[in-house]
Amino acid sequence: MSETGAFGKDDWAVILGGSSGFGLATAHKLAAHGMSVFVVHRDRRGSMSRIKPEFEKLRGHGGQVVTRNADALSDEKRGELLGELTEALGGSGRVKTLLHSIAFGNLKLMVAERPRQKTAASALARKLGLDEAQLRAAADALFLEGEDGLAELASPPTYSDRWYLAADDFARTIHSMGTSLIDWVQAIHERSLFAEDARVFGLTSEGNAVAWKGYAAVAAAKVALESVARSIAVEFAPYGVRCNVLQPGVTHTPAQAAIPGDAHMRAHARMRNPFGRLTTPPDVANVLYLLCQPEAAWINGEVIRIDGGEHISGGTE
In the chain, at which residue ranges do the beta strands (DSSP E only) sit? Predict the structure, then answer.
C-alpha cells in the first residue's frame, strides 16, 4: 500500500528503462506514494525471472502498474506504447513524471591502449622479498573482497584490443542515451498527455566532464542530454513542463558494471566519498520524488548532483 497520499491514481510516471537501477528504484518510490507507473524496459527473456518479481513488488504498492518489454527507441514502438499509455490514463489521468533512464551505449576505447608502467607492486614485492605475481594475486583477491585501498596494487582494468569507437557508435549512443529524450517529450506533449505541472528528468554522470577510458561515446551522450534538457526546460515551460537532469555519484547498477574498470571506479569513489559509500538507486529516487513536489516547481533546467559530496572531496582516506 502507499506510504502517503502524496500523489493520486491519475498522476502517472512514465519510466524509460525501469527494470533495474535508477528506473526501478524510482518506480518503487513513486508507486509507494500513490503514483501510477508505466514502465518501459528492454530485456532478454532470460532476464525476466529476475525482473518479474520486482514488478510484482511494484504492484504490491496498490496503484496502477503497466509494464512493457519493448524498444523505447523505435519510432513505431513508441507510437504503440503511447497508444497503450493513453488507454491506461483513461479520461482523467495525466503524465506527471517522465524519467529517461535508458542505458544503451557503446563502451569501447577510441584507440589501442598504451598503458603506463606502474611500479608499486613490483617495488613492494622486491622490498618484501616476495614474488610479484604472488603479491599481485593476493592483492587481486583482497581487492575483489572489498579492500579498496589495494586498487593501485591490483591488476589494472583490461580493454578490448580489437574493437574501437567509430562514428556510428557515437551516433547510436548519443541518440539512445541523449537526444531520444526529446522524442518522448514531444510525443507526449503532442497527445496532450502531460499534467499541468509535469516534471521531466534525465540522468547524467561525472563522465560529463571527466574522461574515463571506454566512456567517450556515453560521455558525449550525457552532454547532449544535458543540452537537450536545458532546451526542454525553456521551450516547454509555457506548457507547465519542468525539466532537470540528475547526476548521481558512482552507483553499483547493471549499467555501471558494464563500464570497463568498474571495480576500480567504485573503489576510488568509496575512498573519495565523505560518507565512505557509493550512491544507491534509492538515494536518487528519493531526490527525484522531492523534485516532483509542488514546492520544487521553481527548479528548472538544472543539473543536480546526488552523491553525498563525492564530487567536492579532494582526497581519499
Answer: 11-16, 36-41, 65-69, 94-100, 194-203, 241-248, 303-306
